Amino acid sequence: MRRFLFALLILLGIVFFITRFSEVQLIWETLRKGDWRFILLAFIVQSIWVMNLGATYQSIYHCLGTHDRLRRLVTMALASNFANIVAPSVGMSGMAVFIAQARKSGLPVGKVTLAGILFVLVDYAAFLCVLALGLIVLFRRDDLDPPEIIASILLFLLAITMATLITIGARSPVTLGNILAHLARLVNRLLFPFIRRNYLSEQRAHEFAEEVSSGLEALRSDHRTLIVPLMLGLFNKLLLILTLAMVFFAFKVPISIGTVIAGFSVGYLFMIVSPTPAGIGFVEGALTLVLSSFYIPISVAAVLALAYRGFTFWYPLFLGFIAFRALSKTESDSLPI
What is the pTM (predicted TM-score) of this model? Predict the structure, then answer.
């Protein structure tokens, strides 16, 4: 069954690339028109960003009292991103990659699941710091519109909700279990008319709460251990900002720190809150509009947005396909025929 699921996801990935081949071709043609020196620098910066993803996971694992090799964590992070895009399921496809590898390596599944949740929370916290600067730039330039305000509020509420649930889990696994069980009942009621069965297990909700509480034991005594993951999360955003700056340089567009920070902030914000996986379609449009509002010709802004997404979306997605294929091959080799 696992072998079939791995094969299915790889097939979905191939279909995804084929159906969007024209977009990939357009981005490639766009990148060819840029200064190859800055294009190369952008690829180098993005490669460092990929390594930093693994380092962030490794630091969170360390906070929770478990360990894994950096190379494996980089591979799993890329494969998780690939799975979330080609088979979107509110992040569960990507989390399944980490859980499957945890079981294979004998790592505690509860801690690995919690590490994934903390990774998202750290990512949101780091981005909110950058977003605050981006919103200030937009406000000072009188370019702050309702969509950015609403999306920012949604992101803030989402981060607060996640942080609150983790805090509750640290203090009382029973309370967290009751909350998750209530949410499971709500989801089951909504889906029962369609699937005629319970989609989520209330018992599993209580078990997961116990696992989360156990994983948080290492953090209860010293919250300062999360400083390292947060710093790596901020470094992650700095690398993405540098990538956008390299795109400006590659196409000889006048640059200012405020423009780059504001452009990145809006693009990343809509990547998170958009209904499509990794903001497909939304990020390109939002980034083009915000850059054009800074007196960049809209045709040039569209080129910058396409090139930026080539580095930050398509390049990691291609690496993720390779990483997922490597993990699926390892998984297949470990299964009895």
Answer: 0.86
